[in-house]
């Protein structure tokens, strides 16, 4: 363990030197009270903006009092406090996991560069033991990293990981810091509490160096995880084609590396997939051929088509649908763009009145290979089946098809270096050639 006198005094650790705003998670308990006190001294020396955030879970009768304590403590430190009350809904999760999900949702709304959490060395040991008891893999056994992304703009920082609870208690006593106590921490109903209050004390009595050995092992595991992540990141980049997952390239990897790529890919799109779901992805993708598949998750729908994966939010169709309209081609606005293409509509067509609509049964477009339906043209262009029904076409005033947007113009009108109307929300579904 380290002494809290070693807490960063003159500079932030590597990777955090850019931070101009730190927000500290404040529950009112010992750990977070000590953290905010330490950060208030650091922020003053470094001229960094410091705020705090409190999440009111509403799970204890004392919760309102904890909020008032945090308000008073922040006022005394002159630290602005952001707080939010949440509804903890289990949705099949345990109450602890559901509360954590709600808490981190609030944390993710911060405007700070860094969100500081008060996890300490004892928490790290407990996290490792819980992972081992639950059959976790390398990521779970690596416990909590000191720094990781919270979201795309904010890093999560755990500056107290080198220090044990005893060091925090001594610091609080030395500085006469008051804090609140959560009675649920004494309940043996939760496995973590049982470990903290019953299991680990017995192991420590038998093995006095238990914590040091576990923390040393976690350090080694985190190094190994970093190497694994580097390999998986390189594999993920190698199986991308035009920015899209390419199943044919992915299948060339060994089985364990295939699963690592899938895990990274899913996690990168906010999809949490357990072992069974991961194996289901792998099984289907290994045998997909040129067919399609679909997986629905709360925040994403994943489509597989022609050996590629597409991650789309639940309302993607509403976002991608082009509203029917009639007007001059040059006046199309919103998500419409006019691009130069090898062959497209002549510039004179800009003054032409056109109709924007989806394909109809009688639509035909003249091409060098004969007349084709828009559906066939989309298929030949590699547009996935799930996107084709939304695809807009450009028709003339007599409702004759002039162009399949972003793909091809009618060859009877097409000129070299002509204009091709493109509905931007759907263009991501056109594979690069």
Automatic annotation (TrEMBL):
Q: Can you state which reaction this protein catalyses?
A: cytidine(34) in tRNA(Ile2) + L-lysine + ATP = lysidine(34) in tRNA(Ile2) + AMP + diphosphate + H(+)
- Entry-linked InterPro entries: Lysidine-tRNA-synth_C, Rossmann-like_a/b/a_fold, TilS/TtcA_N, tRNA_Ile_lys_synt, tRNA_Ile_lys_synt_N, tRNA_Ile_lys_synt_subst-bd
The answer to whether the entry has keyword tRNA processing is yes
Q: Where in the cell is it found?
A: Cytoplasm
Which family does this protein fall into? Belongs to the tRNA(Ile)-lysidine synthase family.
Q: Supply the NCBIfam families for this chain.
A: lysidine_TilS_C, lysidine_TilS_N
User: What is this protein's record name?
Assistant: tRNA(Ile)-lysidine synthase
Give the source lineage, highest ranks first: Bacteria, Pseudomonadati, Pseudomonadota, Betaproteobacteria, Neisseriales
Q: Which gene encodes it?
A: tilS
């Amino acid at each position: 363990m380290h002494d809290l006198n070693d807490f960063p005094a003159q500079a932030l650790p590597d990777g955090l030197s850019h931070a101009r705003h730190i927000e500290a998670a404040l529950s009112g308990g010992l750990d977070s009270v000590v953290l905010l006190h330490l950060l208030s001294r650091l922020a003053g020396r470094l001229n960094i903006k410091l705020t705090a955030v409190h999440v009111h879970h509403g799970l204890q009768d004392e919760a309102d009092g904890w909020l008032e304590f945090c308000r008073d403590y922040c006022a005394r430190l002159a630290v602005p406090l952001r707080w939010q009350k949440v509804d903890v809904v289990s949705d099949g999760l345990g109450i602890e996991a559901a509360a954590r999900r709600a808490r981190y949702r609030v944390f993710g709304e911060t405007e700070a560069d860094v969100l500081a959490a008060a996890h300490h060395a004892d928490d790290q040991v407990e996290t490792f033991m819980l992972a081992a008891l639950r059959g976790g893999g390398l990521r779970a056994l690596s416990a909590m990293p000191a720094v990781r992304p919270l979201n795309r703009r904010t890093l999560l920082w755990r500056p107290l990981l080198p220090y044990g609870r005893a060091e925090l208690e001594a610091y609080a006593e030395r500085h006469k810091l008051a804090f609140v106590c959560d009675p649920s921490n004494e309940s043996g109903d939760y496995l973590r509490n049982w470990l903290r209050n019953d299991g680990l004390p017995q192991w420590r009595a038998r093995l006095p160096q238990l914590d040091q050995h576990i923390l040393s092992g976690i350090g080694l595991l985190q190094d190994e995880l970093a190497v694994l992540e580097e390999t998986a990141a390189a594999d993920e980049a190698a199986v991308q084609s035009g920015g899209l997952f390419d199943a044919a390239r992915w299948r060339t990897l060994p089985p364990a590396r295939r699963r690592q790529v899938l895990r990274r890919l899913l996690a990168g799109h906010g999809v949490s997939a357990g072992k069974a779901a991961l194996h289901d992805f792998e099984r289907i993708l290994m045998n997909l051929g040129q067919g399609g598949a679909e997986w629905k998750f709360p925040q994403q729908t994943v489509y597989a088509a022609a050996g590629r994966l597409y991650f789309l939010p639940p309302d993607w169709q509403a976002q991608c649908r082009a509203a029917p309209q009639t007007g001059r081609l040059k006046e199309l606005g919103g998500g419409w763009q006019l691009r130069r293409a090898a062959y497209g509509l002549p510039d004179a067509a800009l003054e032409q009145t056109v109709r924007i609509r989806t394909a109809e049964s009688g639509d035909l477009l003249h091409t060098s290979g004969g007349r084709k339906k828009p559906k066939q043209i989309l298929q030949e262009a590699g547009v996935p089946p799930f996107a084709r029904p939304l695809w807009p076409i450009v028709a003339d005033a007599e409702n004759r098809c002039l162009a399949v947007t972003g793909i091809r113009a009618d060859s009877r009108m097409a000129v070299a270096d002509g204009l091709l109307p493109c509905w931007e929300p759907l263009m991501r579904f056109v594979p690069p050639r």
